[in-house]
Give the backbone structure.
Amino acid sequence: MSYESEMLKKFRMPSRKEVERALLITLFKHNGVIKEFAKGEEIVNEIADDFGLNENQRSVVLERIYHKENRIVKTPLWHRLLYRSADFLAKGKLVSRPTSTILLTGTKEWMLTENGFDKALKLLQIPKAQKEFLPIKSYEVQKIVKKLSEAERPENYNPFDKGKKIVKITRESALRTRGFRQSIIEGYDYKCAFCGMKINSPDSLLWEVEAAHIVPHSSNGKDDIWNGLALCHLHHWAFDVGWFTLQNDFTIQVSPEINSIPADFGRMGDYDFIRIFSNKTSKAFLPKRKESYPHRNAIIWHRENRFHK
Ligand SMILES: [Zn+2]
């Protein structure tokens, strides 16, 4: 038995398999990403808490002689166990390694893959049909997010997907849909482009804001950042039914129909979620990156086809 296995046994540490399962569940709870263990003390402690590890188990160190430099390296046994377990998950393609994730997100972190996401759902007994609605990051989806949010803005953008015949939802189109959502809500900093509303669920897993299509799927609208807006539930609904549209300079325009509905419509206490924009000077909140702004070709379509003039 190796020195390390002896130590694991002596301190009655959890098995690698148990830690692998705990890691998948922890990743799920943290939207699909956790920091690498050397710098992620909070995560290291959180998983230790889940196992109810005592002080000795948390602090015991392995001393190994590092031959190249002829010095002794001290590694906490718990960190080492976490690392080994995550490394196994990476070998099984259930997570991406910090060295790969950094190329995508700029941060050294472990991230679930689509397979890892599926495995976590199974462990938590969550139906796979829920996957589409959960904002869990996966390596494959973040790849699409990166592509969508860094794409070069076309001068003359066509927001319609001409060849689109949705017969069945393929794995690829499901990934693309999740990538679209993620890139929009991240791009708009999780805020409604109209009212600025920003709120998540108490477990920080779900954002209230939605990724709205300007040209909707039903009219063959594309899943591109130039055809999207982040909107709260209320303003998403109001935008889709034509209460609002945008001018080419992103001024919010309200349908004149607003003058012919009862005064108590569209109110939440003192807040009036449509009339508040009637002054013709409010501009939509937009992403930091200008290249990600909605494209005028999509906006013009919305003005001509959805907005009630
Ligand atoms: Zn809103």
